[in-house]
Specification:
Elements (H helix, E strand, L loop, with lengths): L4 E7 L3 H12 L6 E7 L6 H11 L3 E5 L6 H10 L5 E4 L5 E2 L3 H12 L3 E9 L5 E5 L4 E2 L1 H5 L10 E3 H4 L16 H4 L5 H16 L4 E12 L9 H15 L4 H20 L1
Parallel strand pairs: 1-2, 1-4, 2-3, 6-10
Antiparallel strand pairs: 4-9, 5-10, 6-7, 6-9, 8-10
């Protein structure tokens, strides 16, 4: 594996932004990566853009979903085909700073951590700066239950430490969670971070560590999954009760913390 980084990018109707996303990977100062672009049955020309870049750069691979399965299923296909020691995530409308991988990998190796994330900027559909999401230096399972500021586009984790870990989707989750809801809820990444946090908590030999520098740009799009705050709150409760199996009182405590965390994140 050496220090190869496998970058997981699901694609669904992202033709407008995909070129900029891919170029932000190509421009990385750290060059030992592979980019796994998974098209989730798009109806635009995004897959054509992806294949054009793949023809130019052997590090870029294009995979096709047999049917539309949502971002989690597309990410899982990429993870199954990943060859790297590290796995990183970048959605098809977001971008990285050119030193993103170099800074995080250097930090992970020097500090001996196996899960790393960073601060990031929020931009509008035109790429104009809106705000910065700052992260804590470290976070544990209990802290993560109170609210998640870990941007999926900033995460890098060590496959040798955790193995290949997959997102919940309609094909690999408990039937108590309605697959139709799960496909759209937008919290699959949060559930995965909780899984990793539990693994670390059980050994007490590692932490989820953050880099304070903003190393990525998250594009906030009108009508996106995460833009519906009421649904986000409903699915947060589902995470507590149906995924983490917390009792009602404990769930309520963490939900109130989540609510306060959300107010601070979006209004301060």
């Amino acid at each position: 594996m050496s220090n190869l980084v496998s970058i997981v990018t699901p694609i669904y109707n992202a033709e407008l932004y995909l070129k900029e996303t891919i170029e932000s990977v190509i421009n990385q100062t750290f060059t030992n990566w592979e980019l796994l672009l998974v098209d989730d049955c798009s109806s635009d020309n995004g897959v054509t853009v992806a294949k054009m870049f793949a023809e130019r750069d052997s590090r870029i691979k294009v995979l096709l979903m047999p049917r539309n399965g949502g971002a989690a299923a597309a990410r899982n296909m990429a993870i199954k085909n990943a060859s790297g020691k590290y796995i990183a995530f970048l959605d098809s409308d977001d971008t990285w700073s050119k030193t993103k991988l170099a800074i995080q990998l250097d930090f992970m190796q020097k500090e001996n951590v196996s899960f790393c994330f960073s601060s990031y900027n929020v931009v509008n559909e035109n790429g104009e700066f809106l705000k910065q999401i700052k992260v804590r230096n470290t976070i544990n399972y209990r802290g993560l239950l109170n609210g998640c500021s870990i941007g999926c586009l900033t995460v890098v984790y060590d496959v040798e430490r955790f193995g290949k870990l997959y997102f919940l989707d309609s094909e690999n989750t408990d039937t108590s969670v309605a697959p139709a809801i799960l496909k759209r809820w937008g919290k699959e990444d949060y559930v995965l971070w909780l899984t990793i946090a539990r693994m670390l908590h059980s050994t007490s030999d590692d932490v989820m560590a953050g880099v304070s520098l903003p190393l990525a740009n998250y594009r906030k799009r009108t009508g996106g999954i995460s833009s519906n705050k009421l649904n986000a709150a409903k699915y947060q409760w589902l995470v507590y009760r149906q995924i983490e199996k917390l009792n009602p009182l404990t769930s309520l405590y963490h939900f109130l913390c989540y609510f306060v965390h959300g107010l601070k994140k979006h209004f301060f």
